Amino acid sequence: MTRASANLELGKLILAARLRRGLSQCVVARRSGLDPAYLSRIEHGKIRPSIEMGMRIAVALGVSPGELFELPSRGERTGPCPVSNSGRCLIDLMDTGSEPGLEKEMERYSARQLRLLRQFAAVLARGEEGVLKAFETLIKKVLDEKAR
């Protein structure tokens, strides 16, 4: 799938979700803090929103990010999922703020934290000795500073 066709598919999903809920572009744009023209460009596949922007649109529409980004539900995942330090799938831990009643101590990540974890995992997966050594040094320094 090309980037343009992926953008168009995402735009169609956002448009369909908005229409199913009977919301105007102006309402969704206002709720998500976007300019209506920017939302229109997303819906028409001209641009692809960042993960953070997609999360804001999902919240404005009252849907899960998985519904917009076509993420499989917890039981449907077939490929590998990046995991947290507790071994849980990061997609399941995305904090959208739309699930009331979750325990405060439950492991959750913001869109920014997920982006950083995915980037870290991608670099770590290469297994380059110099990079692994640099990560070990950085992590040790951060943990040592935190212990003080």
List keywords for this structure.
2 domains, 0% strand, 148 residues, 434 Repressor (Amino-terminal Domain), mainly alpha, 7 helices
CATH superfamily of the largest domain: lambda repressor-like DNA-binding domains
- Low-confidence stretches are 71-78, 95-106
For the record, what CATH class of the largest domain applies? Mainly Alpha
CATH fold annotation of the largest domain: 434 Repressor (Amino-terminal Domain)
H-E order: HHHHHHH
Q: From the helix content, strand content and strand pairing, which structural class follows?
A: mainly alpha
**Spatial shape:** elongated
Rg result: 18 Å
| CATH architecture call of the largest domain | Orthogonal Bundle
Average pLDDT reading: 75
Q: How many β-strands, per DSSP?
A: 0
User: Helix coverage percent of residues?
Assistant: 55-70%
Describe this structure as you would to a colleague:
The protein is built from 7 helices and no strands. The chain has 2 domains: 70 residues, lambda repressor-like DNA-binding domains (434 Repressor (Amino-terminal Domain), Orthogonal Bundle); 69 residues, no CATH class. With 148 residues, the chain is mainly α. The radius of gyration is 18 Å and the shape is elongated.
What's the layout of helices and strands?
Layout: H1 3-20, H2 25-32, H3 36-43, H4 51-61, H5 65-69, H6 111-125, H7 129-147
Helix pairs in contact: 2-3, 2-4
Question: How would you summarize what this structure contains?
Answer:
The protein has 148 residues and is mostly helical. It has helices at 3-20, 25-32, 36-43, 51-61, 65-69, 111-125, 129-147.
